[in-house]
Specification:
This protein has six helices and six strands, in the order αβββαβαααβαβ. It is an alpha+beta fold. Helix 4 crosses helix 5.
């Protein structure tokens, strides 16, 4: 279990490149394209107006975490920064940030990219292999 937490904290939250952002007042709305089912593509799509994307509105704290996910920094660094800014303990901040990131991952807005032990051995040989990890 401690190994899994360590691997998870070493993962890098990376945004989905297909996500579109739109500021609406105080909220930031993230839009992600919806993959249409095969049976909705034909003549049925001519009759029914279908959305091409779905949106998720973020409050101030959500926006803060979203903007911190730059695809470069590890999850542990994000949690430490969040804990420091909001005067929280590391474990409390970790729980908050990880729950939020899990929600974003479930909605296909981001992934946590990490390396497994096998990947570390491959990287020593010059390979570049990464693995997506969802909390």
């Amino acid at each position: 279990n401690a190994v899994k937490i360590t691997q998870l904290l070493a993962a890098v939250p990376t945004r989905n490149a297909a996500v579109r952002e739109e500021q609406r007042g105080e909220a930031l709305v993230l839009f992600v394209p919806i993959r249409q089912r095969w049976w909705l593509r034909g003549p049925l799509s001519w009759c029914l107006p279908l959305r091409g994307e779905k949106g998720v509105a973020l409050d101030a704290l959500g926006q803060e975490v979203w903007r911190a996910c730059d695809g470069q920094r590890q999850l542990e660094a994000l949690v430490e920064d969040f804990a420091h800014r909001h005067r929280l303990g590391f474990h409390e901040a970790r729980l908050t940030v990880m729950r939020f990131l899990r929600m974003l991952a479930q909605r296909n807005l981001l992934v946590l990219v990490g390396t497994s032990d096998a990947d570390d051995a491959t990287e020593e040989d010059g390979g570049d292999v990464s693995k997506a990890v969802v909390a």
